[in-house]
Amino acid sequence: KVQGYRIQLFAGGNTRADRQQAEAIGRKAKRMFPNEPIYTHFYSPRWICRMGNYVSQEKASAVLRRVKAAGIKGASIVKGTITIRRDSEEYEELLKPKEKKQTETAEGDN
User: Fold this and answer.
1) 76: closest CA among 38, 49, 42?
2) CA gap 55, 78 in Å, rounded
3) Is 81 helix (H, G, I), strand (E, B) or coil?
4) Are 90 and 1 in contact (CB under 8 A)?
5) 5 near 54, Cβ under 8 Å?
6) Which end of the chain, C or N, has fewer beta carbons within 10 A?
7) Cα 56 to Cα 46: distance, rounded to the nearest angstrom
8) pLDDT value of residue 33
């Protein structure tokens, strides 16, 4: 588990109707994006439906555009703890070394 991003598809209240709506949106998202994990949970005091595990905000933003184009207009990006499988594209992205900017100073070059 690492810090990353998910797409929040629904955030409701704590009623049975909110639970049903969260589950319905989760099923719809799973049909539209079958390769994406869907998480429907009760985080007191509300029902939440989220999808995906993205290590970069750029990747989450690209998926968010597709989600909104598919008709889930209220979707947004949320930051939090995500689960990365070792055989996933995101795991490979985590292993890439970070590019470091090197600045040269005039004093160090003399």
Assistant:
1) 49
2) 12
3) strand
4) no
5) yes
6) C
7) 26
8) 96
Please give the Cα distance from 18 to 40 (Å, whole number). 11
- Strand, helix or coil for residue 43: strand
- Per-residue pLDDT tens over the stretch 28-60: 999 999 999 999 999 999 999 999 999 999 999
CA 58 – CA 69 distance, rounded (Å): 17
Q: Is 49 exposed, middle or buried (0-12, 13-18, 19+ CB in 10 A)?
A: buried
| Cα(56)–Cα(24) distance, integer angstroms | 27
Tokens 């933003």 sit on residue = 61
Residue type, 31: R
